[in-house]
Automatic annotation (TrEMBL):
EC number in record: 4.1.1.20
Cofactor field: pyridoxal 5'-phosphate
Protein name stated in the entry: Diaminopimelate decarboxylase
Gene name of the record: lysA
SUPFAM superfamilies referenced in this protein's UniProt entry, alphabetically: Alanine racemase C-terminal domain-like, PLP-binding barrel
Domain Orn/DAP/Arg decarboxylase 2 N-terminal: 35-281
Signal sequence bounds: none
Top-level taxonomy: Bacteria, Pseudomonadati, Pseudomonadota, Alphaproteobacteria, Sphingomonadales
Residue intervals of the Orn/DAP/Arg decarboxylase 2 C-terminal domain: 31-370
Length: 418
Protein backbone atom coordinates (compact mmCIF):
# COMPACT_ATOMS: atom_id res chain seq x y z
CA UNK A 1 0.00 0.00 0.00
CA UNK A 2 1.16 3.53 -0.69
CA UNK A 3 -0.10 7.09 -0.44
CA UNK A 4 -0.15 8.11 -4.11
CA UNK A 5 -3.70 8.30 -5.42
CA UNK A 6 -6.00 10.33 -7.60
CA UNK A 7 -8.44 12.47 -5.65
CA UNK A 8 -11.00 14.60 -7.50
CA UNK A 9 -9.26 13.48 -10.67
CA UNK A 10 -5.85 14.84 -9.63
CA UNK A 11 -2.86 12.80 -8.43
CA UNK A 12 -2.12 13.42 -4.77
CA UNK A 13 0.82 12.42 -2.65
CA UNK A 14 -0.70 12.03 0.80
CA UNK A 15 -2.57 15.32 1.28
CA UNK A 16 -0.73 17.33 -1.36
CA UNK A 17 -1.69 17.66 -5.02
CA UNK A 18 1.31 16.77 -7.17
CA UNK A 19 0.27 19.74 -9.35
CA UNK A 20 1.05 22.08 -6.48
CA UNK A 21 4.53 20.57 -6.21
CA UNK A 22 5.09 20.93 -9.96
CA UNK A 23 4.07 24.57 -9.70
CA UNK A 24 6.33 25.27 -6.72
CA UNK A 25 9.42 23.24 -7.65
CA UNK A 26 9.20 22.65 -11.39
CA UNK A 27 9.78 19.38 -13.20
CA UNK A 28 11.28 16.84 -13.35
CA UNK A 29 11.21 16.23 -9.60
CA UNK A 30 11.22 13.17 -7.36
CA UNK A 31 8.46 13.10 -4.74
CA UNK A 32 8.60 10.83 -1.69
CA UNK A 33 5.80 10.05 0.75
CA UNK A 34 6.83 9.94 4.39
CA UNK A 35 3.77 7.90 5.40
CA UNK A 36 4.62 5.29 2.74
CA UNK A 37 8.25 5.05 3.86
CA UNK A 38 7.09 4.60 7.45
CA UNK A 39 4.51 2.05 6.48
CA UNK A 40 7.01 0.00 4.49
CA UNK A 41 9.50 0.12 7.37
CA UNK A 42 6.80 -1.08 9.75
CA UNK A 43 5.59 -3.84 7.40
CA UNK A 44 9.12 -5.16 7.03
CA UNK A 45 9.81 -4.98 10.76
CA UNK A 46 6.57 -6.81 11.50
CA UNK A 47 7.37 -9.41 8.83
CA UNK A 48 10.68 -10.41 10.42
CA UNK A 49 9.60 -9.93 14.02
CA UNK A 50 8.93 -13.65 14.33
CA UNK A 51 12.52 -14.65 13.60
CA UNK A 52 13.99 -13.91 17.03
CA UNK A 53 16.83 -11.43 17.64
CA UNK A 54 17.27 -9.29 14.57
CA UNK A 55 18.39 -5.97 13.17
CA UNK A 56 17.05 -4.23 10.06
CA UNK A 57 19.52 -2.00 8.19
CA UNK A 58 18.13 0.02 5.26
CA UNK A 59 20.34 -0.31 2.17
CA UNK A 60 21.29 3.36 1.80
CA UNK A 61 22.26 2.87 -1.84
CA UNK A 62 18.55 2.60 -2.69
CA UNK A 63 17.84 6.12 -1.45
CA UNK A 64 20.52 8.10 0.38
CA UNK A 65 18.57 11.35 0.70
CA UNK A 66 19.23 12.70 4.20
CA UNK A 67 15.57 13.42 4.96
CA UNK A 68 14.56 9.94 3.80
CA UNK A 69 17.25 8.43 6.02
CA UNK A 70 16.02 10.53 8.96
CA UNK A 71 12.46 9.24 8.43
CA UNK A 72 13.73 5.66 8.39
CA UNK A 73 15.99 6.19 11.41
CA UNK A 74 12.98 7.47 13.33
CA UNK A 75 11.07 4.41 12.13
CA UNK A 76 13.68 2.25 13.86
CA UNK A 77 15.89 1.18 10.95
CA UNK A 78 19.67 1.15 10.89
CA UNK A 79 21.75 1.49 7.73
CA UNK A 80 23.65 -0.77 5.35
CA UNK A 81 26.31 1.36 3.66
CA UNK A 82 28.81 0.66 0.90
CA UNK A 83 31.05 3.73 0.98
CA UNK A 84 32.44 6.33 3.34
CA UNK A 85 29.99 8.77 1.75
CA UNK A 86 26.99 6.60 2.59
CA UNK A 87 28.29 6.08 6.12
CA UNK A 88 28.62 9.84 6.62
CA UNK A 89 25.05 10.29 5.37
CA UNK A 90 23.67 7.63 7.73
CA UNK A 91 25.44 9.28 10.67
CA UNK A 92 24.33 12.77 9.60
CA UNK A 93 20.74 11.56 9.37
CA UNK A 94 20.90 10.43 12.99
CA UNK A 95 21.52 6.68 12.70
CA UNK A 96 23.42 5.28 15.68
CA UNK A 97 26.91 4.05 14.68
CA UNK A 98 26.14 0.67 16.25
CA UNK A 99 23.18 0.31 13.84
CA UNK A 100 25.38 0.72 10.75
CA UNK A 101 26.66 -2.20 8.68
CA UNK A 102 29.49 -1.54 6.20
CA UNK A 103 29.19 -3.75 3.10
CA UNK A 104 31.00 -3.23 -0.18
CA UNK A 105 33.42 -5.21 -2.29
CA UNK A 106 36.15 -2.57 -2.39
CA UNK A 107 36.43 -0.62 0.84
CA UNK A 108 39.57 1.53 0.94
CA UNK A 109 41.85 1.67 3.97
CA UNK A 110 40.57 5.20 4.59
CA UNK A 111 36.96 3.95 4.58
CA UNK A 112 37.78 1.10 6.96
CA UNK A 113 39.54 3.55 9.28
CA UNK A 114 36.57 5.93 9.12
CA UNK A 115 34.27 3.06 10.08
CA UNK A 116 36.47 2.22 13.08
CA UNK A 117 36.64 5.86 14.07
CA UNK A 118 32.84 6.12 13.99
CA UNK A 119 32.45 2.83 15.89
CA UNK A 120 30.09 1.24 13.41
CA UNK A 121 28.29 -1.97 14.28
CA UNK A 122 29.64 -4.40 11.69
CA UNK A 123 32.01 -4.76 8.75
CA UNK A 124 31.05 -7.30 6.08
CA UNK A 125 34.33 -8.66 4.74
CA UNK A 126 34.62 -9.51 1.06
CA UNK A 127 38.28 -10.57 0.79
CA UNK A 128 40.63 -12.34 3.21
CA UNK A 129 43.10 -9.51 2.93
CA UNK A 130 40.40 -7.04 3.92
CA UNK A 131 40.12 -8.92 7.21
CA UNK A 132 43.86 -8.58 7.77
CA UNK A 133 43.91 -4.87 6.92
CA UNK A 134 40.87 -4.16 9.09
CA UNK A 135 42.30 -6.27 11.93
CA UNK A 136 45.61 -4.39 11.82
CA UNK A 137 43.92 -0.98 11.68
CA UNK A 138 41.68 -1.93 14.61
CA UNK A 139 44.51 -3.41 16.69
CA UNK A 140 46.59 -0.26 16.15
CA UNK A 141 43.69 1.71 17.63
CA UNK A 142 43.22 -0.72 20.51
CA UNK A 143 39.89 -1.89 19.01
CA UNK A 144 38.42 -5.19 17.90
CA UNK A 145 36.36 -4.72 14.76
CA UNK A 146 33.02 -6.57 14.67
CA UNK A 147 33.03 -8.42 11.37
CA UNK A 148 31.33 -11.13 9.35
CA UNK A 149 32.48 -12.94 6.24
CA UNK A 150 30.35 -12.40 3.12
CA UNK A 151 29.90 -15.70 1.40
CA UNK A 152 29.00 -16.29 -2.23
CA UNK A 153 26.59 -19.26 -2.17
CA UNK A 154 26.59 -19.77 -5.97
CA UNK A 155 22.82 -19.50 -6.32
CA UNK A 156 21.10 -17.96 -9.34
CA UNK A 157 18.76 -15.25 -8.07
CA UNK A 158 16.72 -15.36 -11.28
CA UNK A 159 16.82 -11.58 -11.65
CA UNK A 160 18.44 -9.21 -14.20
CA UNK A 161 22.09 -10.17 -14.78
CA UNK A 162 23.30 -6.68 -13.84
CA UNK A 163 21.76 -6.95 -10.37
CA UNK A 164 22.62 -10.60 -9.63
CA UNK A 165 25.39 -11.02 -7.07
CA UNK A 166 25.28 -14.58 -5.76
CA UNK A 167 26.72 -16.64 -8.62
CA UNK A 168 30.26 -17.97 -8.43
CA UNK A 169 31.12 -15.86 -11.49
CA UNK A 170 30.15 -12.60 -9.70
CA UNK A 171 32.68 -10.39 -7.94
CA UNK A 172 30.94 -10.57 -4.59
CA UNK A 173 31.77 -12.58 -1.48
CA UNK A 174 34.03 -15.50 -0.74
CA UNK A 175 33.43 -18.85 -2.40
CA UNK A 176 31.43 -20.89 0.08
CA UNK A 177 33.90 -23.78 -0.24
CA UNK A 178 36.77 -21.49 0.84
CA UNK A 179 34.84 -20.00 3.76
CA UNK A 180 35.64 -22.52 6.57
CA UNK A 181 39.42 -22.37 6.14
CA UNK A 182 39.37 -18.61 5.71
CA UNK A 183 37.20 -18.25 8.80
CA UNK A 184 39.78 -20.31 10.77
CA UNK A 185 42.60 -18.04 9.67
CA UNK A 186 40.80 -14.72 10.20
CA UNK A 187 39.36 -15.76 13.56
CA UNK A 188 42.94 -15.63 14.86
CA UNK A 189 43.32 -11.92 13.95
CA UNK A 190 43.58 -10.11 17.30
CA UNK A 191 41.97 -6.96 15.89
CA UNK A 192 38.88 -8.78 14.60
CA UNK A 193 35.79 -9.97 16.40
CA UNK A 194 34.78 -12.36 13.62
CA UNK A 195 31.27 -13.23 14.67
CA UNK A 196 29.36 -14.48 11.67
CA UNK A 197 28.57 -14.67 7.99
CA UNK A 198 26.64 -12.65 5.41
CA UNK A 199 24.94 -13.39 2.11
CA UNK A 200 23.17 -11.34 -0.58
CA UNK A 201 22.34 -12.89 -3.94
CA UNK A 202 20.76 -10.06 -5.89
CA UNK A 203 18.04 -7.46 -6.14
CA UNK A 204 14.40 -7.32 -7.35
CA UNK A 205 13.91 -11.01 -6.60
CA UNK A 206 10.47 -12.17 -7.68
CA UNK A 207 10.72 -15.61 -6.15
CA UNK A 208 11.64 -16.72 -2.63
CA UNK A 209 13.11 -20.07 -3.77
CA UNK A 210 16.63 -18.80 -4.60
CA UNK A 211 16.74 -16.86 -1.34
CA UNK A 212 15.69 -19.95 0.57
CA UNK A 213 18.30 -22.05 -1.25
CA UNK A 214 21.04 -19.56 -0.36
CA UNK A 215 19.93 -19.39 3.27
CA UNK A 216 19.98 -23.18 3.52
CA UNK A 217 23.57 -23.19 2.28
CA UNK A 218 24.42 -20.56 4.86
CA UNK A 219 22.72 -22.72 7.53
CA UNK A 220 24.97 -25.64 6.59
CA UNK A 221 28.05 -23.41 6.72
CA UNK A 222 26.91 -22.12 10.12
CA UNK A 223 26.72 -25.71 11.41
CA UNK A 224 30.16 -26.52 9.95
CA UNK A 225 31.75 -23.42 11.49
CA UNK A 226 30.25 -24.22 14.89
CA UNK A 227 31.43 -27.81 14.61
CA UNK A 228 34.91 -26.41 14.01
CA UNK A 229 34.63 -24.55 17.31
CA UNK A 230 33.70 -21.06 16.15
CA UNK A 231 31.21 -18.96 18.08
CA UNK A 232 28.77 -17.58 15.50
CA UNK A 233 26.40 -14.96 16.85
CA UNK A 234 25.34 -13.05 13.70
CA UNK A 235 24.07 -13.94 10.24
CA UNK A 236 23.34 -11.17 7.75
CA UNK A 237 20.72 -12.25 5.20
CA UNK A 238 21.15 -9.21 2.92
CA UNK A 239 18.35 -7.59 0.93
CA UNK A 240 16.85 -8.30 -2.45
CA UNK A 241 13.11 -8.64 -2.01
CA UNK A 242 11.41 -7.42 -5.18
CA UNK A 243 8.53 -4.96 -5.47
CA UNK A 244 5.68 -4.72 -7.98
CA UNK A 245 6.47 -2.29 -10.80
CA UNK A 246 3.58 -3.23 -13.10
CA UNK A 247 -0.07 -2.71 -12.24
CA UNK A 248 -1.50 -5.96 -10.93
CA UNK A 249 1.91 -7.63 -10.59
CA UNK A 250 2.16 -9.83 -7.51
CA UNK A 251 5.41 -10.64 -5.75
CA UNK A 252 6.24 -12.44 -2.53
CA UNK A 253 5.19 -10.16 0.32
CA UNK A 254 7.45 -9.19 3.20
CA UNK A 255 5.23 -11.39 5.40
CA UNK A 256 5.83 -14.41 3.14
CA UNK A 257 9.54 -13.63 3.15
CA UNK A 258 9.52 -13.35 6.95
CA UNK A 259 7.69 -16.68 7.30
CA UNK A 260 10.26 -18.37 5.06
CA UNK A 261 13.12 -16.87 7.08
CA UNK A 262 11.57 -17.96 10.38
CA UNK A 263 11.17 -21.49 9.02
CA UNK A 264 14.68 -21.81 7.62
CA UNK A 265 16.50 -20.15 10.52
CA UNK A 266 14.51 -21.50 13.48
CA UNK A 267 17.42 -23.47 14.95
CA UNK A 268 20.19 -21.02 14.14
CA UNK A 269 20.28 -19.17 17.48
CA UNK A 270 21.87 -16.03 16.06
CA UNK A 271 21.02 -12.36 15.62
CA UNK A 272 19.67 -12.08 12.08
CA UNK A 273 20.43 -8.98 10.08
CA UNK A 274 18.49 -7.73 7.06
CA UNK A 275 19.47 -5.15 4.44
CA UNK A 276 16.27 -4.23 2.57
CA UNK A 277 16.44 -1.31 0.16
CA UNK A 278 13.94 -1.39 -2.68
CA UNK A 279 11.11 -2.93 -0.66
CA UNK A 280 11.25 0.05 1.73
CA UNK A 281 11.77 2.93 -0.71
CA UNK A 282 10.70 1.77 -4.20
CA UNK A 283 6.99 2.41 -4.02
CA UNK A 284 7.43 5.40 -1.70
CA UNK A 285 8.54 7.66 -4.54
CA UNK A 286 7.53 8.89 -8.00
CA UNK A 287 9.29 10.95 -10.63
CA UNK A 288 7.04 13.81 -11.72
CA UNK A 289 7.54 14.97 -15.29
CA UNK A 290 5.90 17.22 -17.88
CA UNK A 291 5.15 16.32 -21.48
CA UNK A 292 7.17 18.52 -23.85
CA UNK A 293 5.71 17.23 -27.11
CA UNK A 294 3.79 14.35 -28.54
CA UNK A 295 5.66 13.63 -31.73
CA UNK A 296 4.41 11.41 -34.54
CA UNK A 297 6.34 8.18 -34.87
CA UNK A 298 6.39 5.09 -37.01
CA UNK A 299 3.80 2.82 -35.47
CA UNK A 300 3.18 4.82 -32.30
CA UNK A 301 3.55 8.45 -31.30
CA UNK A 302 6.51 9.49 -29.12
CA UNK A 303 5.61 11.15 -25.85
CA UNK A 304 8.69 13.26 -25.15
CA UNK A 305 8.83 14.17 -21.46
CA UNK A 306 11.17 16.50 -19.56
CA UNK A 307 12.62 13.66 -17.46
CA UNK A 308 15.36 11.61 -19.10
CA UNK A 309 17.71 8.70 -18.59
CA UNK A 310 20.00 10.96 -16.57
CA UNK A 311 17.18 11.44 -14.04
CA UNK A 312 15.90 7.85 -13.99
CA UNK A 313 18.49 5.46 -15.39
CA UNK A 314 16.76 2.15 -14.68
CA UNK A 315 14.91 1.67 -17.99
CA UNK A 316 18.07 2.40 -20.00
CA UNK A 317 20.28 0.26 -17.75
CA UNK A 318 18.09 -2.72 -16.93
CA UNK A 319 15.16 -2.44 -19.37
CA UNK A 320 13.17 -1.69 -16.25
CA UNK A 321 9.44 -1.02 -16.37
CA UNK A 322 8.13 2.08 -14.57
CA UNK A 323 4.40 2.64 -14.68
CA UNK A 324 3.47 5.99 -16.30
CA UNK A 325 0.36 7.67 -14.91
CA UNK A 326 -1.15 11.01 -15.93
CA UNK A 327 -1.76 13.73 -13.36
CA UNK A 328 -5.34 14.13 -14.60
CA UNK A 329 -6.33 10.95 -16.44
CA UNK A 330 -9.24 11.59 -18.79
CA UNK A 331 -10.24 7.94 -18.91
CA UNK A 332 -9.12 7.53 -22.51
CA UNK A 333 -6.00 5.59 -23.39
CA UNK A 334 -3.44 5.65 -26.18
CA UNK A 335 -0.54 3.46 -27.21
CA UNK A 336 2.74 5.35 -27.29
CA UNK A 337 6.47 5.30 -26.81
CA UNK A 338 7.77 7.44 -23.95
CA UNK A 339 11.20 9.04 -24.12
CA UNK A 340 13.29 11.84 -22.66
CA UNK A 341 15.21 14.64 -24.39
CA UNK A 342 18.69 13.08 -24.06
CA UNK A 343 20.44 12.52 -27.35
CA UNK A 344 20.54 8.77 -27.50
CA UNK A 345 17.98 6.16 -28.36
CA UNK A 346 18.57 4.43 -25.02
CA UNK A 347 16.80 7.38 -23.44
CA UNK A 348 13.49 5.60 -23.84
CA UNK A 349 11.24 4.79 -20.89
CA UNK A 350 8.70 2.64 -22.70
CA UNK A 351 7.88 1.27 -26.13
CA UNK A 352 4.36 0.58 -27.40
CA UNK A 353 2.90 1.16 -23.94
CA UNK A 354 -0.79 1.70 -23.33
CA UNK A 355 -1.02 4.90 -21.28
CA UNK A 356 -3.43 7.66 -20.33
CA UNK A 357 -3.85 10.09 -23.19
CA UNK A 358 -1.45 13.01 -22.65
CA UNK A 359 -0.69 16.14 -24.62
CA UNK A 360 1.90 18.91 -24.61
CA UNK A 361 2.14 20.52 -21.16
CA UNK A 362 0.46 17.69 -19.25
CA UNK A 363 1.97 16.32 -16.07
CA UNK A 364 2.53 12.63 -15.36
CA UNK A 365 4.56 10.43 -13.03
CA UNK A 366 6.79 7.43 -13.35
CA UNK A 367 5.90 5.27 -10.40
CA UNK A 368 8.06 3.07 -8.17
CA UNK A 369 10.92 5.53 -8.48
CA UNK A 370 11.80 5.89 -4.79
CA UNK A 371 14.61 3.30 -4.94
CA UNK A 372 17.61 3.56 -7.27
CA UNK A 373 16.06 6.68 -8.81
CA UNK A 374 17.47 10.06 -7.79
CA UNK A 375 20.58 8.44 -6.38
CA UNK A 376 21.57 7.13 -9.82
CA UNK A 377 20.89 10.46 -11.53
CA UNK A 378 23.62 12.24 -13.44
CA UNK A 379 23.85 15.54 -15.26
CA UNK A 380 24.52 14.02 -18.69
CA UNK A 381 23.74 16.37 -21.59
CA UNK A 382 24.39 19.22 -19.11
CA UNK A 383 20.98 18.77 -17.61
CA UNK A 384 20.21 19.89 -14.06
CA UNK A 385 20.64 17.49 -11.15
CA UNK A 386 17.05 16.46 -10.42
CA UNK A 387 15.55 17.77 -7.14
CA UNK A 388 13.72 15.76 -4.47
CA UNK A 389 10.66 16.62 -2.38
CA UNK A 390 9.33 14.92 0.75
CA UNK A 391 5.61 15.04 1.52
CA UNK A 392 4.31 14.66 5.05
CA UNK A 393 0.52 14.88 5.26
CA UNK A 394 -0.47 18.28 3.90
CA UNK A 395 3.02 19.77 3.95
CA UNK A 396 6.02 19.26 1.72
CA UNK A 397 9.63 20.35 1.56
CA UNK A 398 12.39 20.36 -1.03
CA UNK A 399 14.87 17.92 0.51
CA UNK A 400 17.39 18.12 -2.32
CA UNK A 401 17.59 21.19 -4.52
CA UNK A 402 17.74 21.24 -8.26
CA UNK A 403 21.36 21.95 -9.16
CA UNK A 404 21.39 24.00 -12.32
CA UNK A 405 23.95 23.35 -15.08
CA UNK A 406 25.55 26.72 -14.35
CA UNK A 407 26.29 25.63 -10.76
CA UNK A 408 27.78 22.39 -12.00
CA UNK A 409 29.92 24.23 -14.55
CA UNK A 410 31.08 26.55 -11.77
CA UNK A 411 32.96 23.63 -10.20
CA UNK A 412 35.02 23.28 -13.38
CA UNK A 413 38.21 25.22 -13.86
CA UNK A 414 39.90 26.79 -16.85
CA UNK A 415 43.71 26.35 -16.70
CA UNK A 416 45.46 29.72 -17.12
CA UNK A 417 47.34 28.32 -20.15
CA UNK A 418 44.20 27.90 -22.17
N1 LIG B 1 22.70 -5.62 0.53
C1 LIG B 1 23.66 -5.70 -0.43
C2 LIG B 1 24.95 -6.30 -0.08
C3 LIG B 1 23.39 -5.23 -1.72
O1 LIG B 1 24.33 -5.33 -2.65
C4 LIG B 1 22.13 -4.67 -2.02
C5 LIG B 1 21.83 -4.16 -3.37
C6 LIG B 1 21.17 -4.59 -0.99
C7 LIG B 1 21.49 -5.08 0.26
C8 LIG B 1 19.81 -4.03 -1.21
O2 LIG B 1 19.08 -4.74 -2.13
P1 LIG B 1 17.52 -4.45 -2.36
O3 LIG B 1 16.79 -4.83 -1.11
O4 LIG B 1 17.35 -3.00 -2.65
O5 LIG B 1 17.18 -5.29 -3.52
N2 LIG B 1 20.54 -0.22 -9.16
C9 LIG B 1 19.86 -1.50 -9.26
C10 LIG B 1 19.88 -2.27 -7.95
C11 LIG B 1 21.26 -2.56 -7.42
C12 LIG B 1 21.25 -3.33 -6.13
C13 LIG B 1 22.60 -3.48 -5.58
N3 LIG B 1 22.69 -4.12 -4.31
C14 LIG B 1 18.43 -1.26 -9.74
O6 LIG B 1 18.06 -0.10 -9.97
O7 LIG B 1 17.67 -2.20 -9.91
Amino acid sequence: MDHFEHRDGVLHVEGVSAEVIAEAVGTPVYIYSRATLERHAQVFRDAVAGSGRHHVAFAVKANPNLAVLRVLAKAGLGADVVSGGEMARALAAGMAPADIVFSGVGKTDAELAAGLEAGIGQFNLEVEEEGRVLGALAAARGQRAPAVLRVNPDVDAGTHAKISTGRAENKFGIAISDAPAMFDRLAREPGLDLRGIAVHIGSQLGDLAPLEASYRRIGQLLADLRAAGHAISHVDLGGGLGVPYRPGETLPTPAEFGAMVARVTQDWDVTLMFEPGRVIAGNAGVLLTRVIWVKPGEGHPWVIVDAAMNDLARPALYDAYHDFVAMRPSGTRMTANIAGPVCESGDTFAKAREIDVVARGDLAVFRTAGAYGATMASTYNSRAKVPEVLVDGTRFAVVSERIEPQAIAAAEAMPDWL
